[in-house]
Every structure is written in structure tokens, then in C-alpha cells.
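Record type: monomer structure entry
Structure origin: computed from sequence
Chain ID: A
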Amino acid sequence: MRPSYMDIVVHSMKDVPTYLLDKTILPCNLPREDVRDAFISLSAASLAELPAGSTVGTASLRRKSQILHRYPSLSILSRRS
């Protein structure tokens, strides 16, 4: 049985949904350690250089959304463990 309320939850902000339930409070956002993402490819220097239909692997729903918004011709492979 799921509780009807929570007193406190510690969660990674990258996984918090875009829309929150009513009465949900996010009291603080700590600064990120390093805001740069890593791009590793043997054939391209950036996402912009990947040919249409290329597959990009990521474990981040946020990053998937950002990539597809800017590069809709790419395919995303979710890499969640």
C-alpha cells in the first residue's frame, strides 16, 4: 500500500517530472558540480555532425528530450540500468 503523503524525499532533480502533484514543494535546488555533458564519438565532433538516423545512447530523460528537440532526426537508445 502506498502512503498518501511523504514528509521528506531526497531525489535527483534530473529525474523529477516536469509537472508535479498539487501541494508538492521543492524547497531547495543545490548548484550542480559540473554542468557540462560528455559527448563521445569516433566519427563526429558534436551532435550536429551526426548524420540523420544516428543512434545516441543516454540514461537521462531530460537529455533525451533536449537532444530530440534540437536534433529530431536522431534516434535515442535509453541506457537505464
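Annotation 1: The helical segments are 61-70.
Annotation 2: The beta strands are 55-58, 75-78.
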